[in-house]
């Protein structure tokens, strides 16, 4: 039987990662909703033609729009983006999961790949 007292969870801080909790989900709702829309080829085409206008149609904040147009994944994560939805956006530009990992760790793509190979 579990004791009737609260259990405090400790958070481990890992550089380049952000806790995606309810607060962050609310903060990034429109950003993630926009990225989800990229399941449609037509929406990807519309975004590519007019990225900023497409962002405005989803009511993104000015900061989110700048992060999107700069492809600044870390900033999008800080602004409530969920990595699974952001991958839909970055995929439009041919970015891979390794590109995202490199950005998250602050390494170049080659350095990130070397780090992955050294872990195998």
Any chance you could write out the topology, listing elements then pairs?
Layout: H1 22-27, H2 29-36, H3 41-49, H4 51-57, H5 62-69, H6 73-78, H7 83-92, H8 97-105, H9 109-119
**Number of domains as seen in the coordinates:** 1
Average pLDDT, all residues: 87
Total DSSP E strands: 0
- The CATH architecture name reads Orthogonal Bundle
Sum up the overall morphology in one term: globular
SSE string, helices as H and strands as E: HHHHHHHHH
| Structure annotation, total helices | 9
Radius of gyration: 17 Å
At the fold tier of CATH, the topology name is: Protocatechuate 4,5-dioxygenase, Chain A
Computed structural class? mainly alpha
CATH superfamily: Dioxygenase LigAB, LigA subunit
What percent strand?
under 5%
| Fraction in helix | 55-70%
How would a crystallographer describe the biggest sheet?
none
Cα(first) to Cα(last) distance is 41 Å
Q: What do these coordinates show?
A:
There is one protein chain. The chain contains 9 helices and no strands. By secondary structure, the chain is mainly alpha-helical. It has a single domain, classed as Dioxygenase LigAB, LigA subunit (Protocatechuate 4,5-dioxygenase, Chain A). The longest helix has 11 residues, at 109-119. Mean pLDDT is 87; it is low at 1-12.
């Amino acid at each position: 039987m579990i004791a009737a007292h609260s259990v405090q969870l400790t958070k481990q801080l890992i550089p380049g990662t952000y806790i995606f909790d309810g607060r962050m989900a609310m903060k990034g709702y429109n950003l993630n909703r926009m990225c989800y829309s990229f399941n449609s080829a037509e929406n990807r085409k519309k975004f590519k033609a007019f990225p900023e206008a497409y962002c405005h149609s989803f009511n993104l904040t000015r900061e989110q729009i700048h992060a999107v147009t700069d492809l600044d994944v870390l900033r999008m994560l800080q602004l409530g983006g969920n990595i699974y939805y952001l991958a839909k956006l970055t995929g439009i530009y041919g970015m891979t999961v390794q590109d995202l990992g490199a950005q998250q760790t602050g390494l170049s793509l080659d350095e990130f790949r070397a780090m992955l190979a050294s872990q195998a």
